[in-house]
Write a structure and sequence with these properties.
heterodimer; A: 228 residues; mainly beta; Lipocalin; ten-stranded antiparallel barrel; globular; B: 346 residues; alpha+beta; Serine Threonine Protein Phosphatase 5, Tetratricopeptide repeat; Immunoglobulin-like; seven-stranded antiparallel β-sheet; two-stranded antiparallel ribbon; 44% helix; 24% strand
Chain lengths: 228, 346
């Protein structure tokens, strides 16, 4: 368990370091690429096993976007403090730190293909499941108007690993998202709004048979980013 | 009687100007006698005047008076002889057919065919690019003769003698002189003389016309900035306002929220639509604003291609104009103008 936490920490630090490196590279050397980076306010809903374990919370996050030719990448970090809801049986709050990396390749029309990974760590680690998975899916983007873009993306999450054990079938882990980006101040600033939904149909077997232990999270993020 | 009146009128009109310059009293008396239809007195007066010292003009008028008198007396052969002397003295002399009796006119015409003269030498004033035009030259030769037309003139090293034409001709002759040297270059600027020499047997006659040749630069052609009748089209166009942004925002948001509901695990209770609803509301609002907003101009591909073709055409035409101007700068504009002639031929 300690080893897994160390791996999660390394991934988070690598992602942060990558964002910092991208942000400090002079823009004149990257004339063919566009970078934006900025903070976000995060709010979410987290459920696990049954409707009794329901949490809601808010926190902070950051989002970086890199575009180069037909490629683009989103790196999203968030830390949400989840508190039990009043109608549930949970009593202890926990922090969920999440890294979501998506690499995207433009295919045709509004469609792009996506590949990435997600890693969410719960602290204290026994209050909720830490999870990591590889994501694959597609994105449809549309230009609503000058500087206003919206995107709908969805896909599957493969090879999900849980801190508390358990498995998920091939089509059991799904994600869905909606995003909005509005350029402002001559494209120097972008106002961003993102919604992400994840569902893991996790199953556990403690020797008494297979039991469903699903995990579900809805996350909303609103913020802005500086574009280079 | 009618013929006499016509002759009288012709003499009167013809001598109105001459009376100002005829100084010889004998000739004046003879003309007075002719005016009074006293042909005998006019004849003796005219002959007497010819024996006196007369200017060329007076001598020509004296013979003309004799010609008219003989015509009036129906002595056609003598009238022709008298008119031959007129033509030799004054080759350019013509009689007004409306004011001259047919007898005198026919006698004059017969006289013209019996002497060799070159008359009515005319060099038209003309301007053209050297090598691309000609100078019209025309004259009338009264008898079949070998006629050589030359241009002489120029100064210093540029002095030249060019043969324009050599032919056997009779009547009116039209020539076209290209105003070029034998090597093809335009003749240098300067004063020249067009000389027409006619010869038949022992008889010869020559006349000349001075001309001035001047050089100028050939105008170049201005470059084109547009093609007449073709204007560039706007390369962007504003599409018509549509509800598409709002519609798509609703569709995307609806898909996200419906997907959230559909994908939620039933064991975890009713799904939370708070997060998706908040972001979806923002998207719908943005779609609504974009629907109300004037659409952004979009590239008009057809117009861009049209403008591209237009610019290529103008560039191609300007390249041709540049080549044409390079050629024109090496050319010279020749202006040939006749100069007042000092006198008739001989």
């Amino acid at each position: 368990m300690r080893t897994e936490r160390r791996k999660d920490g390394r991934a988070l630090r690598a992602a942060v370091a990558g964002m910092v490196v991208l942000s400090v590279i002079p823009s004149f050397r990257l004339s063919a690429q566009h970078i934006s980076i900025g903070p976000q306010v995060v709010f979410g809903d987290y459920r696990e096993v049954s409707s009794d374990l329901q949490y809601r919370g808010s926190g902070i996050g950051a989002k970086a976007t890199l575009e180069w030719k037909k490629f683009s990448a989103d790196i999203v970090l968030s830390k949400v403090k989840y508190r039990p809801t009043s109608n549930g049986t949970a009593t202890t709050e926990f922090d969920a730190s999440e890294v979501d990396v998506r690499l995207r390749y433009y295919i045709t029309g509004p469609v792009s293909g996506e590949l990435g990974f997600i890693n969410r760590k719960a602290d204290p680690e026994f209050e909720a499941q830490s999870v990591g998975a590889v994501t694959a899916g597609a994105q449809m983007a549309y230009l609503l108007g000058p500087g206003v873009r919206m995107a709908l993306h969805g896909g599957l999450m493969f090879g999900a690993k849980y801190s508390g054990g358990g498995t998920t079938s091939g089509l059991g882990a799904l994600q869905l998202g909606l995003g909005l980006t509005v350029d402002a101040l001559h494209r120097r600033v972008r106002v961003t709004g993102d919604y992400g939904f994840q569902r893991f149909s996790r199953k556990t077997d403690d020797g008494r048979g297979v039991l469903p232990a699903p995990i579900q999270q809805s996350l909303g993020r609103v913020g802005f980013a500086i574009a280079f | 009687m009618k013929a006499q009146a016509l002759v009288t009128a012709a003499i009167l009109s013809g001598t109105t100007l001459a009376a100002q310059t005829i100084q010889n009293p004998t000739l004046r008396r003879a003309q007075q006698a002719f005016d009074n239809l006293d042909y005998r007195q006019a004849l003796s007066g005219g002959r007497a005047a010819l024996r006196e010292r007369l200017s060329g003009f007076e001598r020509s008028r004296a013979y003309e008076l004799l010609g008219f008198t003989y015509s009036g007396m129906d002595s056609i052969l003598k009238a022709v002889d008298a008119f031959k002397q007129v033509v030799l003295l004054e080759p350019e002399r013509t009689l007004d057919p409306n004011r001259t009796s047919p007898k005198a006119l026919s006698a004059f015409q017969v006289a013209l065919t019996q002497v060799l003269v070159v008359r009515q030498l005319v060099v038209d004033s003309v301007t053209f690019v050297g090598g691309q035009g000609v100078v019209p030259v025309r004259y009338t030769v009264t008898q079949p003769a070998r006629v050589v037309t030359r241009v002489v003139g120029g100064t210093g090293a540029a002095s030249t003698s060019l043969r324009i034409d050599s032919t056997v001709a009779n009547g009116q002759v039209n020539l076209r002189w290209p105003a070029r040297l034998p090597n093809g270059d335009p003749v240098p600027a300067g004063n020249y003389t067009v000389i027409v020499e006619a010869a038949v047997g022992q008889n010869s006659f020559s006349t000349s016309q001075p001309i001035r040749v001047s050089h100028g630069t050939v105008d170049t052609v201005a470059h084109l900035t547009s093609l007449p009748g073709y204007a560039e089209l706007p390369e962007t166009e504003v599409p018509p306002k549509s509800w598409r942004p709002l519609g798509l925002a609703l569709v995307y948001t609806g898909v996200a929220l419906a997907g959230t509901s559909a994908l939620s695990n039933g064991d975890l209770g009713s799904p939370s639509l708070r997060e998706g609803g908040a972001i979806g509301a923002g998207i719908v609002l943005a779609g609504f604003i974009m629907t109300l907003k004037k659409p952004a101009p979009q590239a008009a591909r057809g117009n861009i291609l049209y403008n591209q073709l237009l610019r290529e055409q103008i560039a191609r035409r300007n390249a041709e104009i540049a080549q044409e101007n390079t050629r024109r700068r090496q050319q010279v504009a020749l202006t040939v103008a006749p100069v007042a002639r000092p006198g008739g031929g001989r």
